[in-house]
Amino acid sequence: MAKDSENRRRLAPKQTIAVALAYEPKSADDAPTVTASGRGKVAEKILELAFANNVKVREDADLAQILTAVDVDSVIPLEAFMAVAEILAYVYRANNQAVPSPGGP
């Protein structure tokens, strides 16, 4: 029986998950926030908007699972900080931008 449930899990279609983040520090304690989150059709719309606006998209199923558990307009959870920091650093480098400083322009 364990083999049957294992086969069903492998055959189950993957559901699209998407999360949008923002990082606009006003103080040293500010952290990135979840600005949009969804599954299925909502996730597809988030991705469509991201691609249409040339927003960089990163695929990370584990991180997406963590971040979809967070309410929109909430700060990311502590366990996501390192992964999100790496992503933001990559995005800033790719765009030839400095990481924003708290209270900066």
Give an overview of the whole structure.
By secondary structure, this protein is α+β, with helices and mostly antiparallel strands. It contains 4 helices and 2 strands; from the N terminus they run αββααα. It has helices spanning 2-11, 41-52, 61-68, 81-94; strands at 17-22, 33-39. Strands 1-2 form a two-stranded antiparallel sheet. The longest helix is centred in the C-terminal third of the chain and has 14 residues, at 81-94. The radius of gyration is 16 Å and the shape is globular.
Strand order of the largest sheet: 1-2
**Major sheet: size, sense and barrel closure?**
2 strands, antiparallel
Radius of gyration: 16 Å
CATH classification, class level: Alpha Beta
- CATH topology description: name from scop
Number of discrete domains: 1
Global morphology: globular
Per CATH, which architecture?
A: 3-Layer(aba) Sandwich
- Averaged pLDDT, please? 85
Which spans of ≥5 residues are poorly predicted at pLDDT below 50? none
Helix content: 40-55%
Structural class: alpha+beta
CATH homologous superfamily caption = secretion proteins EscU
Strand content: 5-15%
The tally of helices reads: 4
Strands, count: 2
What is the string of helix and strand elements? Answer: HEEHHH
| N-to-C span | 60 Å
Quick summary:
This protein is α+β, with helices and mostly antiparallel strands. Helices cover 42% and strands 12% of the residues.
